[in-house]
Design a protein that fits this description.
Layout lengths: L3 H17 L5 H14 L10 E2 L6 H4 L26 E10 L2 E7 L11 E4 L3 E7 L9 E2 L4 E2 L9 E7 L4 E6 L11 E7 L31 E16 L2 E8 L8 E4 L3 E8 L10 E2 L19 E7 L4 E6 L5 H6 L3 E7 L9 E10 L9 E3 L3 H5 L5 E4 L12 E4 L3 E10 L4 E6 L3 E5 L9 E4 L1 E4 L3 E8 L4 E7 L11 E6 L18
Parallel strand pairs: 2-5, 4-10, 11-14, 12-20, 13-18, 19-23, 22-30
Antiparallel strand pairs: 1-8, 2-3, 5-8, 6-7, 9-10, 11-12, 14-16, 15-17, 17-18, 19-21, 23-28, 24-27, 24-29, 25-26, 25-28, 29-30
Helix pairs in contact: 1-2
The chain binds copper (II) ion.
The site of copper (II) ion has 8 residues, from loops.
Length: 511
């Protein structure tokens, strides 16, 4: 499928490209950085109606799927001046059904269907992946769109092409190899008028605003702090036109940011909503005791439990649901952070943010529209479809970017719910001045850090001063994950200080 080396190179090139642009082009540069590997050297053109990757030598196509040219779905923030959307993706495998040559749908709504009808909406970018299922030569052509795949030669060879569905109507897709269309290789592309109806109506916004966290505690005597959690299962918006049944603490992902000081007594009330299907619980990594509290908080729908613990050690800690299958509860959104401030608190900064990373394991492939379902097999074999900041695709790019002003110091509390993937947390275009390694606030922070490793069930704190206005991008520097939903914007208002960076040679720098 996608070639990781190419991706990495493309990502690096895009990031570099982003950095090289003068500030007035920051928007485009950021779009490029976000598109990064997603575009894998291939522009996913808004203007061009089609693009064809061209025929490949047969030698490169025999054997396993070798296209390596997936124009993966891209995304961005319309406010940032770009118009990429997730491509509507279909995968067709050639095969034999009832003695005829046919296309067979793979994945999503068309899975297993013979010559499936491909339904899209006007204006959508359509991506069609063709896989050779039996070894004869094939392609896919849509005449009216002047769109076609390469000829796939040899079993498991594949090809990908995309186009913008800007003509409404019904169009045949077929194999142009002599005789194949007549032999059965023909189906229908239906382009419906108007934009696809988004599912916002019946899907909740489960995204936790990264600015939604309590302020510093600083110096105060220790006290009993009551924490009220309600576990809520709800259909939430995963992406435009895509929903997932999340399991949450208080309806958002991540759960509430809990902030106490060392020595506090934390009294947790866990209520499980009466319309829940599952039992839920909570394990605080900040707690010492059986299950981090989970042993005392296994809570049936409609019930409430209480557990009390001492915040003995300062630090930034993950909490999560710990009801089996724990991985299932975590992937579905049941994680959050608790900060146990050291005596006197952390050094003051101008802005604090709360960001967590997790993965989603859906039956449907990344980018599929509709209601998606959890895939237990993918979960247990660690094959996620989505990587997410704060629970949804576009959570920190489209709906809730981080905002700051040039000259301010920014702190990000960053945790990984996971359940499985370690993050290489990085902000494109910035350097962390202070990193509280492994979430320890009792060890002096390390300084001048580019990328921080954060394991599942782990967290960190990064502080940095923003010297220059512009747009910065939060990523996991395992950048293939940016193609599967993982990106955030830090939008910084203020002067674009050319002394720090400008396009062109040094002697052209304005004083
Ligand atoms: Cu749970």
């Amino acid at each position: 499928m996608t070639n990781p080396v190419l991706l990495a190179l493309a990502a690096a090139a895009a990031a570099l490209f982003a950095c090289m642009f003068p500030a007035r082009h920051a928007r485009r540069a950021i779009a490029a950085a976000i598109g990064l590997a997603a575009m894998t050297f291939l522009a996913l053109p808004a203007a061009a109606q089609t693009h064809d990757h061209g025929a490949q030598p047969a030698s490169e196509q025999s054997g396993e799927a070798s296209s390596g040219e997936e124009a993966a779905p891209t995304r961005s923030d319309p406010a940032l001046g770009t118009s990429y959307h997730s491509a509507t993706t279909f995968t067709l495998r050639t095969g034999i059904a009832a003695g005829r040559m046919v296309y067979i749908g793979v994945g999503g709504d068309i899975d297993g269907q013979v010559n499936p009808e491909l339904m899209v909406h006007e204006g959508e970018i359509v991506q069609i992946n063709l896989i050779n299922g039996e070894g004869a030569e094939h392609d896919v052509v849509i005449d009216q769109y002047a769109a076609r795949s390469s000829i796939v030669v040899g079993k498991n060879a594949s090809s990908t092409f995309s186009f913008t569905a800007n003509k409404v109507g019904e169009f045949a897709y077929f194999c142009s190899i002599a005789g194949h269309r007549l032999a059965g290789m023909e189906g229908l592309l239906r382009v419906m008028p108007g934009a696809r109806e988004t599912m916002d109506m019946d899907a909740a916004d489960i995204v936790r605003d990264p600015a939604d966290l309590p302020g510093p505690i600083g110096s105060r005597p220790t006290q009993v702090v009551r924490v009220d959690f309600e576990t809520i299962e709800l259909k939430g918006k995963l992406d435009d036109g895509t929903t997932y049944v999340y399991w949450t603490f208080n309806g958002k992902v991540p759960g509430p940011f809990v902030r106490v000081r060392v020595g506090d007594t934390v009294q947790v009330h866990l209520k499980n909503a009466s319309d829940s299907v599952m039992m839920h619980s909570v394990d605080f990594h900040a707690a010492t005791g059986p299950g981090g509290g989970a042993d005392f908080t296994q809570t049936a729908p409609g019930d409430e439990t209480v557990v009390t613990f001492q915040a003995l050690k300062p630090g930034i800690y993950v909490y999560h649901c710990a009801t089996p299958s724990v991985a299932h509860h975590i992937t579905s959104g049941m994680y959050g952070l608790i900060l146990v401030e050291p005596e006197g608190g952390l050094p003051q900064v101008d802005r604090e943010f709360y960001v967590m990373q997790g993965e989603l394991y859906t039956v449907e492939t990344f980018g599929t529209k509709g209601d998606l379902e959890m895939d237990y097999d993918k979960l247990t074999s660690e094959r996620p479809e989505y990587f997410l900041f704060n629970g949804a695709v576009g959570a920190l790019t489209k709906s809730h970017p981080l905002y700051a002003n040039a000259g301010e110091t920014v702190r990000i509390f960053f945790g990984v719910g996971g359940p499985n993937y370690t993050s290489s947390f990085h902000v494109i275009g910035e350097i962390f001045d202070h990193v509280y390694t492994l979430g320890s606030v009792t060890t002096p922070p390390v300084t001048g850090v580019q990328t921080v490793t954060v394991p599942p069930g782990g967290a960190t704190i990064v502080d940095f001063k923003i010297d220059r206005g512009g747009h910065y991008v939060l990523v996991d520097h395992a950048l293939s994950r940016a193609e599967r939903g993982l990106a955030g914007y830090l939008i910084v208002d203020g002067p674009e200080n050319d002394a720090i960076m400008h396009a062109g040679p040094a002697d052209q720098s304005p004083e």
